[in-house]
Amino acid sequence: MLVLHYTGMQSGAAALARLREAEARVSSHYLVEEDGTVFRLVPEDRRAWHAGISHWRGCIGLNDRSIGIEIVNPGHEWGYRPFPALQMAAVCDLCLEIIARHPIAPWNIVGHSDVAPDRKQDPGELFDWEGLAANGVGFWPEAVPPAPADAQAATLLAAIGYRMDLPLPLLLTAFQRRWRPARVDGLADAECLARLAAVAARIPAIRPDRP
Domain N-acetylmuramoyl-L-alanine amidase, which positions (predicted)? Predict the structure, then answer.
């Protein structure tokens, strides 16, 4: 898996220092600065402590099976702002390099808020997932037809891979940050249901032996 984060700190220097502190017990494989500089912090074949308590498509403890990229941004606590073009280009190139080395399926390229929706909001609704997909990182449903009449938000969220022991509005909010960033309200309106169905249609059924 590939998990994308924002740093949620006031500067890239502060984030880099924290990621290098053994006492902090937090780390990632990469850090991408706003000017596009990439720091390689942990070898890809080593576990980094970036996902925390996490779940995706039936798997837990995702530090054991994922590569983590921290992307410098103050986050919702310190003045969330759009990700600069140079930074997004560097993130895209880095992701393409990683998925060329590892068999990571498009539906297993996720945000921290996807795998820990009760704890995290990153990389958030300003992150350009659609642009990444256009360049071969993950996917984005281009056509979003109306949802089937019997569409159920909980069933579709489960099919995509979200953990289902959390309140539905919280899970919908996480989905919207990723897939419907223009309106993040935790409500399963017609547009949200349509997007849920369109995303679920692109993802194979969950197998018990792999995400």
Answer: 1-124
Distance, in Å, from the CA atom of 184 to the CA atom of 2, rounded to the nearest integer, reads 23
H or E stretch at 5: strand 2-6
Q: Within a domain: residue 25?
A: yes
Which of 70, 97, 130, 191 is flagged as catalytic? 70
| Pairwise CA distance, residues 16 & 35, whole Å | 14
Annotation says 70 is catalytic: yes
How much is the mean pLDDT over the chain? 96
In-domain check, residue 162? yes
70 SS3 class: strand
Tell whether 127 and 146 lie within a shared domain: no
Average pLDDT (166-185) is 98
The string of pLDDT tens digits covering residues 18-34 is 999 988 899 999 999 99
Let me know if residue 167 belongs to a domain.
yes
For residue 183, is it within any domain? yes
